[in-house]
Amino acid sequence: MKELIKRLIRYSSTPILDAFAQSDLTDRSILLQGAQAAFAVRTVQHVQSLSDVGFRVFSQFDEDGIIEWLVSRLPGIPAAFVEFGVEDYREANTRFLLRHRNWRGLIMDGSPANMERAKASPHFWQSDLTAVAAFIDRENINGLIAGNGFGGEAGILSIDLDGNDYWIWQAIDVVNPWIVVIEYNAVFGDLLSLTIPYGPEFRRTRAHSSCLYWGAGIGALEHLAKERGYALLGSNLAGNNAFFLRADLLPHFDGQIADRRARPSLYRESRAADGSLSYIKGGARRDIIADMPVVDVSLGKTVRLGDVGNIYSQHWAEVMGTK
User: Fold this and answer.
1) DSSP 178-245
2) The domain spanning residue 236 has which CATH number?
3) Which domain holds residue 133?
């Protein structure tokens, strides 16, 4: 079983004019291997953490397997999703659901060119997929979702904006997802409830040259989730996507996930002033953006990141190799 799950699909297409121009044979092979991995994880009854059932088909990391395991344990889950921040949908949290389970979905991205590329893919006409180009803020998000036919119950809401993620989830009230997958910024630690202040024009690449200043920490998202009636089930192995379940559905997972904590991230995506990778790691990433403002949502006040004290639990510090 473990060996089959480990045969993850490490799919990444080469830069070509049409990112979706794959041969029919290759596409079928990818989906067949994904279906085999999906069958394997569906038989797993108990996990130490969600990463135990992770695998990658079209997701950035191991989200496809985690989503498959969660969905398979929720009978009657609405077969509809909303995902935004998808770029051209070549790599996304819901694309495997679309292809493997034939869910209907709404995807959104701020780039019209990205959405045109998504519409050019064969699976756009082979599935019930709506693609909308829009720069999302908390004033327009509900209109965008409802205006495209996705109000009410939904299986999954997936948020990956690299910016106002906390504030957008807080604003959404037209859709009632069973599962929320949302990206968190592990640089903000796990002890406090920190997010960037809301800014409708926020751009990660403009906010700070390191590109480390964006989004919300896991503590802020847990704080919001509790307010909204959701509970954390855990995160992916890479430590950047958290999975929340509507609290009334928790009995479906009683005793099945031993460790529901989110993980810290180890990847080194920081940028130097010239835009090149600088490979800063661990707690040193926090030092680079220490002068930037963050909101502690549990206290309702804005402070400098460098003034809030320790933000990493002993567990996170040990995993990151931070003393």
Assistant:
1) EEEEEE--GGG-SSS-EEPPP-TT--HHHH-TTS---SB-HHHHHHHHHHHTEEEEEE-TTS-EEEEE
2) 3.40.50.150
3) 2-320
